[in-house]
Amino acid sequence: MSSAVCIFCKIIKGDIPSFKVFESDKVFAFLDIQPLSRGHTLVIPKFHGEKLTDIPDDYLNEVLPVAKKIAKATGAVDFNVLQNNGTIAHQVVPHVHFHMIPKPNEKEGLGVGWPAQETDMDKLKALHEEVKSKIERSETL
Question: Residue span of the signal peptide, if any (predicted)?
Fold first, then answer.
């Protein structure tokens, strides 16, 4: 499934050129043209979907193994694998994509803020039960 207006779908089809480093039946990977560091690569499922929850599992099975191969091929020792969902979560292109971003030093690569919150153990316990229950129910469907 693809979208006629999606830039990543156009790249997959070859309508827009890319620096492709890997392709299979379900995954496509290419160098980012606005890299945060040398070797910054995008790994995308060939199924068009805006968010991770829109992509069938069989299209996601190869994504992390491909990101791992690319990390090794670029020589990245330290790196981030990043995937954003939705505009307020910093997703710019509305097609699921994973960034493999080498972090060769403090200045290059991904910079991350981590605004940790204080933990309310009662609320955390309630959330744990809620999420665990929903996951268990979804596995039996």
Answer: none
Our answer to whether residue 128 is catalytic in this structure is: no
CB of 55 closer than 8 Å to CB of 95 = no
Q: Is residue 136 part of a domain?
A: no
Q: At 75, which CATH number?
A: 3.30.428.10
Range of the domain at 78: 7-116
Q: Is 138 a domain residue?
A: no
Question: Per the residue annotation, which of 95, 97, 99, 128 is the catalytic one?
Answer: 97
Amino acid at 20: K
Enter the DSSP assignment of 14: T
Of 9-18, 49-58, 109-118, the one with minimum mean pLDDT is 109-118
Residue 132 lies in a domain: no
Residue 87, domain member (yes or no)? yes
Please count the structural domains in the chain: 1
User: What Rg value do the Cα atoms of the chain yield, rounded?
Assistant: 17
Predicted structure pTM score: 0.90
Report the 10 Å Cβ neighbour count for 82. Answer: 14
Q: Which pLDDT tens digit goes with each residue over 12-45?
A: 999 999 999 999 999 999 999 999 999 999 999 9
